[in-house]
Amino acid sequence: MIVLLEVKNLHVKVGDGGRQILRGVDLTIDSGEVHAIMGPNGSGKSTLAHVLAGKQGYDVTDGTVLFDGNDLLALKPDERAATGVFLAFQYPVEIPGVAGITFLKTALNSQRKARGEAELTTPDFMRLIKEASVRLHMTPEMLRRPVNTGFSGGEKKRNEILQMALLEPRLAILDETDSGLDIDALRIVSRGVNALRNQDRGMLVITHYQRLLNHIVPDKVHVMSAGRIVRSSGKELALELEEHGYAAYDVHAA
Amino acid sequence: MPAVRETVDRVRQIDVDRYKYGFATDIESEKAPKGLSEDTVRFISKKKNEPAWMLEWRLTAFRRWLTLKEPTWARVSYPKIDFQDMYYFAAPKAGASYESLDEVPTEILETYEKLGVPLREREVLLGIEPKSPGVAVDAVFDSVSVATTFREELAKAGVLFMPISEAIHKHPEIVRKYLGSVVPITDNFFATLNSAVFSDGSFVYVPEGVRCPMELSTYFRINERNTGQFERTLIIAEKGAYVSYLEGCTAPMRDENQLHAAVVELVALDDAEIKYSTVQNWYPGDKDGLGGIYNFVTKRGDCRGARSKISWTQVETGSAITWKYPSCILRGDGSVGEFFSIAVSNGHQQVDSGTKMTHLGKNTKSRIVSKGIAAGQSSNTYRGLVSAHRKATNVRNYTVCDSLLIGDRSGAHTIPYIEAKNSAVVFEHEATTSKIGDDQLFYCLQRGISEEEAVALIVNGFVREVIQQLPMEFAVEAQKLIGVSLEGSVG
Amino acid sequence: MSAEPRSMKTEAEQGLAQQFIAARDDLPGSPAVAERRDAAFALFERLGLPHRRIEAWKYTDLRARMRKALPIAPTPSVDQVERTLAASSTFADLDHYRLVLADGYFQEPLSDREAMLAEGIEIATLVEFLGSDGTSSVEALHDPEGAGGDAMIALNAALASDGVVIRMPDGCLPSKPIEIVHVSTVGTPASAWFTRSVATIGAGAKARLLVSHVGPDGVAYRSNSFVAVDMAEAAEIAFVDLQSEGDAAQHVTTFSAELAKESKLRHLSVASGAALSRLQGFVTIKGERADLSVSGANMLSRSQHGDITWRIDHAVPGATSRVLYKSAVADTAFGAFQGLILVRAGAPKTDGKMMTRTLLLSDEAQFAAKPELEIYADDVQCGHGATIGKIDETALFYLMSRGIPRTDAEALLIRAYLAEALAPIGDKAIAASLEPILAAWPEQRAL
Predict the structure, then answer these.
(1) What is the pTM of this model?
(2) Does A contact C via 3+ CB–CB distances below 8 Å?
(3) For residue C279, which of C325, C248, C319 has the smallest C-alpha distance?
(4) So what's the pLDDT on residue C189?
(5) Which distant-in-sequence residues (6+ apart) come within 8 Å of A57 by Cβ?
């Protein structure tokens, strides 16, 4: 087991001198571990996910993020992806006119190329995609449709996990993957995620509700509040939060 | 997707001025004396050995032209054109017409080979894509049609496909009946000029009930310096006939502006259908806006018969200035007009393009899908008119005009005119202008796709609805062209 | 003022020139104003009456529709004005201040100047304003930005006889809406008048301005009014233009506004009168994060001709504009909507949307729409939409199946269709006072 992600004292503002969102986040994820971050709305959970993936519009004012021992913040978003950081979006983006398959193949081959690996041939790619989509109950027809366009909430989330399965990241960040899912979809998605757990891969599951963690059982649970991780513990912490809510952590009120 | 891959690879290979068709062919040519007068018109007519009625038609147009003023309403600006300072006719010297491919000068054949136009039927028949039904090609080099392929095969089906100069001799009754019947010689400054001096172009006649067995195609090439190109295309689909026609255009890189003022007339009779596709890649000028083609074109289709259909698809990536509005006159009851357009502008290009859907008949329908992409310091305008006349009841139009801006020095404009003269219409128009969404870009980047590739991907998605209208071979080519045209605009 | 005469002046243009020469010395204003008027008329002479080849007037050919010049209206008697006002009450159920302009002249006895002053709102008449020295008086006659040589605005500047100049100080919060009524009395022969009014709204002031136009039926009078609003930072205005001119009138009105940072303007026009009407609006957004809404209900029947033309100029980043026009056109009437959203290179993050929807209610009704986008900044979200069609047969059938007779069902649907344009004004009392006009129109039409 090695240290995969090491976040130290991370301070982040929204762009153009805006509000301070993260106020000193510390977080270490080892390979093979699944961490969950829970917290009230506005506590900075999604900001952390966006900053790790390199989204524009945020200002890192202090702190470091090491991924595999290298400075993650120095990389562009596509370079981060190629080194193995994957973000499953809370709101997967629609790209009209671009077929899902085209998108996936472009992404996969871009990453392989960036890593100096050979690009996949079409038959190999099709075989991969077929296997993965069966597991996630996705039809070939869905993949021929433009990316996320006209998809239901559940379809979009399944599509995210399918991409994760194909891109085989080292670190998967799941941002509110449970939002907008009914119980059946939640099961399918969770099964997809669990199938991807292994010794080399770390996961960071961001969620507001404990429900998801019944399906994706974490090794560690963190509570985030007002831009900091205020408590870390084992999976039992999730149940405690479910019972008592976030009231005890609502630093905003203070 | 391979096309995207290729687009990107192609982009990388292209030099700064990104125009790979910019070579000139060194061939001696015969020109009309510089400038425009009745004598020029007579010279052209004589060169083509035209009958008296044709000369008379030209002279009428020329006299009319003298009374007209150059239009100024389009959102384009360019120095005044000196119509006396150019040549109106240029032909490769060896002879203005060729009986067979063997007579065509080698240089010209080589030019078309370089351009990837399959002139030799043999090559096509043995071709790389054996399943392809083949494309019959008419190639227009400067003012003259140099070759028309697949003629025999077409003749078996009864389809006439030949240079219009030849049709004037061989099928005068058809030409006289239809020439100028859609775009009258009085139509507009540039069309009238074309009527006076047009040198060649394609002629297609599809007899009643015939479905043209293959795609027809014309490849236009301007080679000569200081030469205007004025081709004239006439396509007639008799009752129940169907034809799909493609045209492609290129020109060498030259630092003067060259005028291209074509006229295209389509006539569809009862239940006939004409599909007309253009991939326009005239030389756009260099990165400082020097040189390039002035593409001032009048294209109009007349849905003369009941239930006829005319569909325009255009991919406009070239020219310094594009001024064109392929239109449909929906005269026959139940006729259908379509306009699918992609207009890409970069550098200093100026595009003012769109369509007119004139609903005259009952139960007529039209659809407009326009996708404009403006990059660099270019200006990209959609201008359209949808009108329903008093007696045109139960009429529908649906229009979508989307513009994408890349970089903050370009302009995108949308100017639709929507006019209803009776209540039994349903007109719906929607337009948007935006840049590539930050969210879309981030989503692609997060999946490991580079910014340049992500933009190409999103742009391809943006234009997909139009690309799908093109025949397969053209679709791939068009997608590549769009990628190449936008090179250097990202980042 | 000796601009080159155009080779072929129409009879109306010649008449106007004679009138201007005759009226010139009696028109109010300082010498600087007189100079401005001369320049404005010279411009008019150069341009002539608008016609179809003038793109901004493409759908309203005044050269063809104003055959002869009408005499300039004399000052009416208070009695005449009161009678006309009584016959056409506007905003009757709304408690409001009123400023009355009749046949082009301010009516002191009928106006609430004093009461408004008590709330800190200064009112001058245009005559008072132009009479004073200094340059600010000439300002009142300036062209709106972006109008770029509009003949009817030039004519207004040359011939404006009166108007009101409203100055609302910073933070002013008037307790009631302020109405400027334009009244035309019965004149024999029919006459023409020109007014110009200007409102300056101080920073953070919030007010409701109502502009109305009323006049007698059966008289072919001509009105040419102009209202300019200059809004300082964070000012908020709900502005209504209610056009209920007499059925033979020719009505041209110009609205102009400049929006400073974070100011908010909601403009609503409701038009059902006049034989020929043209509302042209020019808004320049000069301050970041300004918020503009323009909406309108346009009712045209008989052989009415109605033209709405807007130009919205986004000159700075981050502003929002929304346009929603609903029109209903019946009988042999003709309607036109032209609307331009211009986004300058210095105006990224602009959010501009424009929608025009039209119901054609008879086979001979006509409508033309020309929404335009002219965009020079890439980081924008702009769009427009236009629909023209007839009444929704499915909805009609649904209502009829519930026992509502066809004409009633139609009236109900038309009213609901038009009423959507009232919501953006964001003021329930104002919307409620206009609602009856929309409700009455389909019924009047059925008669």
Answers:
(1) 0.87
(2) no
(3) C325
(4) 75
(5) A14, A15, B438
